[in-house]
Sequence to fold (227 residues):
Amino acid sequence: DAGVIQSPRHEVTEMGQEVTLRCKPISGHDYLFWYRQTMMRGLELLIYFNNNVPIDDSGMPEDRFSAKMPNASFSTLKIQPSEPRDSAVYFCASSPPAVFGADTQYFGPGTRLTVL
Amino acid sequence: KNQVEQSPQSLIILEGKNCTLQCNYTVSPFSNLRWYKQDTGRGPVSLTIMTFSENTKSNGRYTATLDADTKQSSLHITASQLSDSASYICVVSTGGFKTIFGAGTRLFVKA
Fold:
Protein backbone atom coordinates (compact mmCIF):
# COMPACT_ATOMS: atom_id res chain seq x y z
CA ASP A 1 0.00 0.00 0.00
CA ALA A 2 1.18 3.54 -0.72
CA GLY A 3 0.32 4.77 2.74
CA VAL A 4 -1.78 7.83 3.49
CA ILE A 5 -1.72 10.21 0.56
CA GLN A 6 -2.15 13.95 0.95
CA SER A 7 -2.37 16.69 -1.62
CA PRO A 8 -1.14 19.22 -2.24
CA ARG A 9 2.17 18.91 -0.39
CA HIS A 10 2.60 22.66 -0.34
CA GLU A 11 0.01 25.40 -0.67
CA VAL A 12 0.60 29.13 -0.70
CA THR A 13 -2.45 31.35 -0.82
CA GLU A 14 -3.55 34.83 0.04
CA MET A 15 -5.67 35.79 3.00
CA GLY A 16 -9.36 35.41 2.27
CA GLN A 17 -8.98 32.65 -0.28
CA GLU A 18 -10.54 29.22 0.09
CA VAL A 19 -8.16 26.36 0.70
CA THR A 20 -8.97 22.67 0.24
CA LEU A 21 -6.68 19.95 1.52
CA ARG A 22 -7.16 16.37 0.40
CA CYS A 23 -6.48 12.99 1.93
CA LYS A 24 -6.68 9.39 0.81
CA PRO A 25 -6.46 6.99 3.76
CA ILE A 26 -4.97 3.52 3.71
CA SER A 27 -7.42 1.03 2.23
CA GLY A 28 -9.31 -0.88 4.91
CA HIS A 29 -8.77 1.72 7.61
CA ASP A 30 -12.04 2.96 9.02
CA TYR A 31 -10.72 5.85 11.12
CA LEU A 32 -9.45 9.08 9.61
CA PHE A 33 -7.93 11.99 11.48
CA TRP A 34 -7.01 15.55 10.60
CA TYR A 35 -4.23 17.22 12.62
CA ARG A 36 -2.56 20.62 12.56
CA GLN A 37 1.03 21.23 13.63
CA THR A 38 2.63 24.58 14.40
CA MET A 39 5.77 25.56 16.25
CA MET A 40 3.73 27.36 18.89
CA ARG A 41 1.04 24.77 19.56
CA GLY A 42 2.60 21.51 18.42
CA LEU A 43 0.27 18.82 17.10
CA GLU A 44 -3.47 19.28 17.55
CA LEU A 45 -6.27 16.90 16.63
CA LEU A 46 -8.87 18.81 14.62
CA ILE A 47 -11.46 16.17 13.77
CA TYR A 48 -11.79 12.46 13.24
CA PHE A 49 -14.13 10.21 11.31
CA ASN A 50 -15.21 6.63 11.80
CA ASN A 51 -16.73 4.87 8.81
CA ASN A 52 -17.02 8.24 7.04
CA VAL A 53 -19.00 9.79 9.91
CA PRO A 54 -17.52 12.71 11.88
CA ILE A 55 -17.21 11.58 15.49
CA ASP A 56 -15.48 14.46 17.23
CA ASP A 57 -14.89 17.88 15.74
CA SER A 58 -14.20 19.67 19.00
CA GLY A 59 -10.69 20.48 17.85
CA MET A 60 -11.82 22.43 14.80
CA PRO A 61 -10.76 25.97 15.62
CA GLU A 62 -13.52 27.97 13.98
CA ASP A 63 -16.47 27.82 11.65
CA ARG A 64 -14.08 28.72 8.87
CA PHE A 65 -12.87 25.13 9.05
CA SER A 66 -14.92 22.25 7.70
CA ALA A 67 -14.14 18.62 6.93
CA LYS A 68 -15.95 16.01 4.90
CA MET A 69 -15.52 12.35 4.12
CA PRO A 70 -17.85 11.49 1.23
CA ASN A 71 -16.52 7.94 0.99
CA ALA A 72 -14.06 5.55 2.59
CA SER A 73 -11.20 6.58 0.34
CA PHE A 74 -11.35 10.37 0.39
CA SER A 75 -11.56 13.25 2.82
CA THR A 76 -11.19 17.01 2.55
CA LEU A 77 -10.37 19.76 4.99
CA LYS A 78 -11.54 23.16 3.84
CA ILE A 79 -10.67 26.59 5.19
CA GLN A 80 -12.84 29.47 4.01
CA PRO A 81 -11.81 32.23 4.26
CA SER A 82 -8.18 31.53 5.09
CA GLU A 83 -6.17 33.74 7.46
CA PRO A 84 -2.41 34.07 8.06
CA ARG A 85 -2.76 32.36 11.46
CA ASP A 86 -3.95 29.23 9.65
CA SER A 87 -0.42 28.75 8.33
CA ALA A 88 0.70 25.34 9.56
CA VAL A 89 1.38 21.79 8.47
CA TYR A 90 -1.82 19.79 8.21
CA PHE A 91 -1.57 16.04 8.62
CA CYS A 92 -4.06 13.37 7.76
CA ALA A 93 -3.81 10.00 9.48
CA SER A 94 -5.75 6.76 9.28
CA SER A 95 -6.15 3.79 11.57
CA PRO A 96 -7.61 0.31 11.34
CA PRO A 97 -10.47 -0.67 13.67
CA ALA A 98 -9.32 0.07 17.20
CA VAL A 99 -9.85 -1.42 20.61
CA PHE A 100 -10.25 1.44 23.10
CA GLY A 101 -8.61 3.75 20.61
CA ALA A 102 -5.31 1.97 21.03
CA ASP A 103 -4.50 1.07 17.46
CA THR A 104 -1.67 2.58 15.46
CA GLN A 105 -2.32 5.72 13.44
CA TYR A 106 -0.51 6.07 10.14
CA PHE A 107 0.27 9.63 9.16
CA GLY A 108 0.52 11.12 5.71
CA PRO A 109 3.40 13.39 4.66
CA GLY A 110 1.43 16.53 5.47
CA THR A 111 0.42 19.66 3.59
CA ARG A 112 2.41 22.78 4.39
CA LEU A 113 -0.01 25.70 4.16
CA THR A 114 1.18 29.28 4.00
CA VAL A 115 -1.41 32.05 4.05
CA LEU A 116 0.01 35.43 3.09
CA LYS B 1 -5.97 20.39 33.54
CA ASN B 2 -4.84 17.61 31.19
CA GLN B 3 -1.21 18.13 30.30
CA VAL B 4 1.71 16.20 28.84
CA GLU B 5 5.17 17.51 29.58
CA GLN B 6 8.30 16.22 27.91
CA SER B 7 11.90 16.65 28.88
CA PRO B 8 14.43 17.57 27.86
CA GLN B 9 13.28 19.98 25.19
CA SER B 10 16.32 19.07 23.10
CA LEU B 11 19.24 16.70 23.44
CA ILE B 12 22.53 16.18 21.67
CA ILE B 13 24.29 12.83 21.93
CA LEU B 14 27.11 11.04 20.18
CA GLU B 15 26.40 8.19 17.82
CA GLY B 16 26.43 4.85 19.63
CA LYS B 17 25.40 6.30 23.00
CA ASN B 18 22.16 5.56 24.80
CA CYS B 19 19.63 8.16 25.87
CA THR B 20 16.35 8.41 27.74
CA LEU B 21 13.53 10.82 27.04
CA GLN B 22 10.92 11.62 29.68
CA CYS B 23 7.18 12.19 29.55
CA ASN B 24 5.10 13.22 32.55
CA TYR B 25 1.36 13.54 32.26
CA THR B 26 -1.58 14.76 34.29
CA VAL B 27 -4.30 13.24 32.18
CA SER B 28 -7.44 11.66 33.50
CA PRO B 29 -8.96 9.34 32.70
CA PHE B 30 -6.05 7.50 31.11
CA SER B 31 -6.57 5.24 28.12
CA ASN B 32 -3.20 4.79 26.46
CA LEU B 33 0.17 6.42 25.87
CA ARG B 34 1.99 6.52 22.56
CA TRP B 35 5.44 7.56 21.49
CA TYR B 36 5.92 8.91 17.98
CA LYS B 37 9.07 9.68 16.02
CA GLN B 38 8.87 12.58 13.60
CA ASP B 39 11.63 13.20 11.09
CA THR B 40 11.98 16.73 9.77
CA GLY B 41 9.44 17.40 7.04
CA ARG B 42 7.58 14.14 7.56
CA GLY B 43 4.56 12.89 9.44
CA PRO B 44 4.91 11.20 12.84
CA VAL B 45 5.54 7.46 12.91
CA SER B 46 4.27 5.37 15.78
CA LEU B 47 6.95 3.68 17.90
CA THR B 48 4.96 2.19 20.77
CA ILE B 49 1.48 2.16 22.27
CA MET B 50 0.92 1.21 25.91
CA THR B 51 -2.29 0.77 27.80
CA PHE B 52 -2.78 1.01 31.55
CA SER B 53 -1.73 -2.58 32.23
CA GLU B 54 1.51 -2.46 30.25
CA ASN B 55 4.67 -1.12 31.83
CA THR B 56 7.21 -1.76 29.10
CA LYS B 57 7.19 -2.20 25.35
CA SER B 58 10.04 -2.48 22.89
CA ASN B 59 10.38 -1.72 19.21
CA GLY B 60 13.89 -2.59 18.09
CA ARG B 61 16.32 -0.22 19.81
CA TYR B 62 13.43 1.75 21.30
CA THR B 63 12.04 0.74 24.69
CA ALA B 64 9.18 2.60 26.32
CA THR B 65 8.21 2.30 29.96
CA LEU B 66 5.07 3.39 31.71
CA ASP B 67 4.44 3.95 35.40
CA ALA B 68 0.72 4.60 35.68
CA ASP B 69 0.99 5.30 39.41
CA THR B 70 3.42 8.18 39.04
CA LYS B 71 2.07 9.09 35.57
CA GLN B 72 5.46 8.93 33.98
CA SER B 73 6.77 7.36 30.82
CA SER B 74 10.21 7.15 29.31
CA LEU B 75 11.59 6.27 25.92
CA HIS B 76 15.03 4.69 25.95
CA ILE B 77 17.08 4.58 22.78
CA THR B 78 19.93 2.10 22.72
CA ALA B 79 23.07 2.45 20.61
CA SER B 80 21.88 5.59 18.89
CA GLN B 81 22.31 6.06 15.15
CA LEU B 82 22.42 9.18 13.03
CA SER B 83 18.96 8.26 11.72
CA ASP B 84 17.56 8.60 15.23
CA SER B 85 17.87 12.37 14.89
CA ALA B 86 14.24 13.48 15.03
CA SER B 87 11.54 14.81 17.30
CA TYR B 88 9.98 12.34 19.72
CA ILE B 89 6.43 13.08 20.75
CA CYS B 90 4.55 11.62 23.70
CA VAL B 91 0.78 11.44 23.29
CA VAL B 92 -1.73 10.47 25.97
CA SER B 93 -5.32 9.49 25.22
CA THR B 94 -8.14 9.92 27.69
CA GLY B 95 -10.51 7.61 25.90
CA GLY B 96 -11.54 7.07 22.34
CA PHE B 97 -9.26 9.37 20.39
CA LYS B 98 -9.25 12.34 22.73
CA THR B 99 -5.53 13.03 22.77
CA ILE B 100 -3.14 15.37 24.52
CA PHE B 101 0.18 15.89 22.78
CA GLY B 102 3.48 16.73 24.38
CA ALA B 103 5.63 19.41 22.79
CA GLY B 104 8.25 16.84 21.87
CA THR B 105 11.95 16.31 22.47
CA ARG B 106 14.29 17.22 19.66
CA LEU B 107 17.13 14.67 19.51
CA PHE B 108 20.34 15.31 17.60
CA VAL B 109 22.73 12.40 17.11
CA LYS B 110 26.24 13.48 16.12
CA ALA B 111 28.89 11.38 14.44
Notes: Residues 56 and 65 of chain B are 4 Å apart (CA to CA). Chain B has a mean pLDDT of 93. Chain B touches chain A through 21 residues (CB under 8 Å).
